[in-house]
């Protein structure tokens, strides 16, 4: 599949040739490993018979293949390879499903081709492109998932959900083959009592930008601010039309990385709506710290979790956590990732950039306001979007957690509080 992905590439022939050679090398290595594993299985299968020969002091010609002891020896040999301890497949995905995800999501040229097919496939349905759409964003753990879910339930929005995996760029083709009706809900790994199932919407659109920008904004340690081209923007609008179910619906997405390209998106489109959420820096940092520890442990137990998060561009916490880089200078954070100071620095880096954006054509909402007065917040968004909302699923929630900041850097606390007060002045007043 890696070789076919390289063949499908439309890049310069020199680059394409290098990728073909690399893909061929990877394929030969994989073939060599497979042959080696087969050899190991053959050796392990024959080993008990060889031991039996040594015990009986027999040569191969004297071996009676009909002997019960030879049959037992062969049987033991065939069982041994299956006794070798190996990692269990993840509880959410079978080995076949993991392989299918890897074949699709690891191969960007294939995904681009599927996107092109899906565009042709849906042309007959006459879903028109629409410049008005809504993005919910913010630093992870700011309440973006909850607000996006509430909005989706409240109005005529269309969004990606887990059933779109792994053919994220061909939602209509995939729906013809896979359209689950019966959905079982369970708590997500964050431990925040939020339930999800195959029809639960999630932050999946970032894969589009990863594919069409070829991960150019992702480095070893950073997610870097970047501009998108007009071609990428037009394809993004086409992609939204593939997701939207009809001409009346509005595209909705949660995307915590959108800030990296917000300014260039705004140059192409003055009409789209975006909501940024924020919360008290110490509470926010504490939540990020907890999730970092939690997901790092999960990733030790199941390496597929990190692979899955990498595919979707989720680098907020865990073993492959990356820092937002908004300028030419690299953000330097001197604290350990397992301390509150580190995540306060992450908060400061993100919201310092947000509050200083020259363009303020966005809606800023505080997490506590959304928790305590969800109906009032959604009523404002209803006017903001010029839509009609259903408020029957809304319930307020009170957060009473107090965070111990006695071990935090006082200067860091002062800096985060300064930005926090600026955000509060700029936020939606409810």
CATH architecture of the largest domain: 3-Layer(aba) Sandwich
Mean pLDDT: 83
CATH C-level class of the largest domain = Alpha Beta
So what's the oligomer here? Answer: single chain
Which overall shape is indicated by the principal axes computed on the Cα atoms? globular
H/E topology pattern: HHHHHEHEHEEHEHEHEHHEHEHHH
The Rg value, from CA coordinates, equals: 26 Å
In DSSP terms (H or I, runs of 4 or more residues), the helix count works out at 16
CATH topology of the largest domain: Rossmann fold
**Major sheet summary line:** 5 strands, parallel
Counted up, domains total 2
Number of strands: 9
What is the percent of helical residues? 40-55%
Distance between the termini: 53 Å
Structural class: alpha/beta
Low-confidence stretches: 188-196
Across the major sheet, the strand order is: 2-6-1-7-9
What does this protein structure show overall?
The protein has 430 residues and is of the alpha/beta class. The protein has two domains: 2-83, no CATH class; 95-426, Rossmann fold. 51% of the residues lie in helices and 8% in strands. It has 16 helices and nine strands. It has a five-stranded parallel β-sheet with strand order 2-6-1-7-9, sandwiched between helices. Helix 1 (2-8) packs across helix 5 (108-122). It is globular.
List the topology elements:
Blueprint: H1 2-8, H2 13-56, H3 68-83, H4 95-105, H5 108-122, E1 133-138, H6 144-154, E2 157-158, H7 171-177, E3 186-187, E4 195-196, H8 206-212, E5 222-224, H9 230-243, E6 250-254, H10 262-268, E7 273-278, H11 281-301, H12 303-311, E8 323-325, H13 340-355, E9 363-366, H14 367-372, H15 374-385, H16 410-426
Parallel strand pairs: 1-6, 1-7, 2-6, 5-8, 7-9
Antiparallel strand pairs: 3-4
Helix pairs in contact: 1-2, 1-5, 2-3, 11-12, 11-13, 13-16
């Amino acid at each position: 599949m890696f070789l076919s992905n390289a063949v499908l590439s439309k890049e310069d022939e020199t680059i394409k040739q290098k990728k073909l050679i690399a893909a061929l090398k990877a394929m030969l290595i994989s073939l060599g490993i497979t042959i080696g594993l087969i050899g190991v299985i053959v050796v392990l299968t024959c080993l008990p018979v060889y031991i039996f020969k040594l015990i009986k002091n027999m040569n191969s010609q004297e071996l009676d293949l009909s002997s019960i002891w030879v049959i037992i020896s062969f049987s033991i040999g065939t069982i041994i390879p299956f006794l070798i301890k190996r990692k269990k497949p993840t509880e959410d995905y079978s080995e076949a499903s993991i392989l299918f995800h890897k074949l699709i999501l690891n191969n960007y040229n294939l995904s681009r081709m599927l996107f092109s097919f899906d565009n042709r496939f849906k042309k007959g349905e006459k879903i028109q492109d629409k410049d008005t759409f809504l993005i919910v964003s913010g630093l992870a753990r700011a309440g973006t998932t909850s607000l996006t879910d509430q909005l989706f339930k409240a109005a005529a929005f269309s969004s990606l959900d887990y059933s779109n995996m792994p053919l994220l760029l061909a939602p209509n083709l995939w729906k013809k083959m896979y359209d689950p009706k019966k959905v079982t809900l369970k708590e997500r790994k964050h431990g925040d009592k939020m339930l999800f199932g195959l029809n639960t919407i999630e932050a999946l659109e970032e894969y589009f930008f990863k594919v069409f920008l070829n991960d150019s904004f992702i480095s070893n340690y950073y997610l870097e601010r970047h501009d998108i081209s007009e071609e990428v923007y037009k394809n993004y609008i086409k992609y939204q039309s593939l997701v939207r179910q009809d001409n009346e619906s509005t595209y909705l997405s949660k995307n915590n990385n959108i800030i990296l390209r917000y300014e260039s998106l705004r140059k192409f489109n003055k009409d789209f709506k975006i909501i940024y959420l924020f919360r008290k820096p110490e509470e926010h940092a504490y939540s990020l710290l907890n999730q970092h520890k939690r997901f790092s442990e999960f990733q030790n137990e199941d390496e597929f979790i990190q692979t899955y998060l990498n595919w979707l561009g989720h680098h907020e916490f865990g073993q492959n956590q990356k820092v937002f880089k908004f300028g030419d200078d690299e953000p330097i954070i001197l604290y350990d990732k397992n301390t509150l100071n580190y995540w306060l620095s992450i908060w400061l880096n993100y919201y310092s950039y947000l509050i200083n954006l020259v363009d303020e054509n966005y809606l800023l909402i505080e997490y506590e306001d959304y928790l305590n007065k969800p109906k009032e917040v959604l009523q404002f968004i209803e006017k903001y979007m010029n839509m009609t909302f259903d408020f029957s699923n809304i319930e307020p929630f009170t957060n009473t957690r107090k965070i111990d900041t006695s071990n935090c850097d006082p200067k860091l606390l002062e800096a985060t509080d300064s930005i926090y007060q600026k955000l509060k002045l700029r936020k939606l007043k409810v």
